[in-house]
Amino acid sequence: MKVKSAKLCVIGSEVLNGFIIDTNTHFFSEELFKLGIEVSESRIIRDNLDQIILCLKEFQNSKELIITCGGLGPTNDDLTVDALSLLLTRKSVIDEYCERKIKAVFKKRYSKSEYENIIEKALKQGRVIEGSMALKNKVGLAAGFFIKEIPLFSFPGFPDEIKSIWPQAVKIIKNISETRHAVETIPLWNVGESRLFSEIKIPQQLEVGVHALPLGSRLFIKAKNEEGFMVLQKFKKNMSEKYDGLTEEDPLKIFIEHCKKENKTFSFVESCSGGYLASIVTSYSGVSPVFKGAMITYDNAVKVDAAGVSEETLKKYGAVSLQTALEMAEGGLQKMNTDICLSITGIAGPSGGSKEKPVGLFFMAIAKKNNPSYVAKFHYPFGRKKFIEAAAYTAFLSLYQKEVYYKNDEIWLKKSFAEFTKG
């Protein structure tokens, strides 16, 4: 059976009750779009056997690809396998790989008597429908599986576990997909939707979707037919040229790899971002050889004692100023002995602003060993959370453009998305 669209079934009372935010629908929809498959419906249902069976029976009649997530754990309210077993009148079995993994984990975690008492319950999460294809979960213990004749994928509910299983699912989906039209995604850093759609024209052969990035937007583009394939490739090339230096998928990752290659280290001095930049950087595996750390200099006294900002500068210009940002970056460069140091100081809000220095104002400086320092002023009145996210990605994009994409400071200053000046 070939498919060109999909239905999603998110199973979990905790999602409907608002205890957990459903990010899985977003993940599946985005990933399926890349494969040329449109999601026609996503439904969230409770951990109720009758409701799950009713939903899956209805979905099965649609002849679309079905994806379920949740309800594969060891507790009494994990009912997905039971529902499928009843719906298809097929038994459930324990997947051998899962059985070995679950037993190994629980033997390490518990004493012999505790293990014997709970292992039968724990093995429940290793169940799959008889005759299905088990999918390895490299992060958790619950098995994912694929039932070819429906066709249906069943995933655990945890996003990290879904992502570990997903590459196996992609290979299967490519074989059963009816859609062969090209699909592309184009990140556009610092380019909002209003600006974007006032500056570009979408060819009629293409179908376009968009959603926000922490700073900017991302286009999802699909050719409507075979004729649109060449149109899509030309459109993507034109976008890269028009938004020069703004279309890399992950500027921070490229900057980190550049530092590794060049044997350069970097650090941050953060004020208004409160360590958010450092938390993102340290989520990248293998970054420790190049990222030395960050100072969180929230209080003025810490800016003075830790980063070496002068009390005179703070008194004359204030904590949120071009001068303070420069001294934070240059002080951090010396104190942490790195090749590059970026600083950020601003007013995240919702309080603390003034007419001269409104909420959303921040300054960012980049200091580099044996090189001039640079500083820029920004104003993102987006609300506290969005402000911090956007400021962080402004930092990453600035480092990528300065050190990797443009390399030459003079070219960078002319073409950078931000108005940096020499400090």
Strand content: 15-25%
Indicate the low-confidence ranges by residue numbers: none
Q: CA-to-CA gap between the ends?
A: 64 Å
Looking across the biggest beta sheet, what order are the strands in? 2-1-3-8-7-6
CATH superfamily of the largest domain: MoaB/Mog-like domain
Can you tell me about this structure?
- This protein is an alpha/beta fold.
- The chain has 3 domains: 172 residues, Molybdenum Cofactor Biosythetic Enzyme, Chain A, CATH 3.40.980.10; 60 residues; 172 residues, Maf protein.
- Helix content is 42%, strand content 22%.
- The chain has 16 helices and 17 strands.
- It has a 6-stranded mixed β-sheet, with helices on both faces.
- β6 and β7 form a beta hairpin.
- α3 packs across α4 and α10 crosses α15.
- The N and C termini lie far apart (64 Å).
Q: How are the elements arranged and paired?
A:
Blueprint: E1 5-11, H1 13-16, H2 24-34, E2 38-45, H3 49-61, E3 65-69, H4 80-88, E4 92-94, H5 96-109, H6 112-122, E5 127-129, E6 133-135, E7 144-147, E8 152-155, H7 159-176, E9 183-189, H8 193-199, E10 206-213, E11 216-223, H9 228-242, H10 251-262, E12 266-270, H11 276-281, E13 291-296, H12 300-305, H13 311-317, H14 322-335, E14 340-346, E15 361-368, E16 374-379, H15 384-405, H16 409-415, E17 421-422
Parallel strand pairs: 1-2, 1-3, 3-8, 12-13, 12-14
Antiparallel strand pairs: 4-5, 6-7, 7-8, 9-11, 10-11, 14-15, 15-16, 16-17
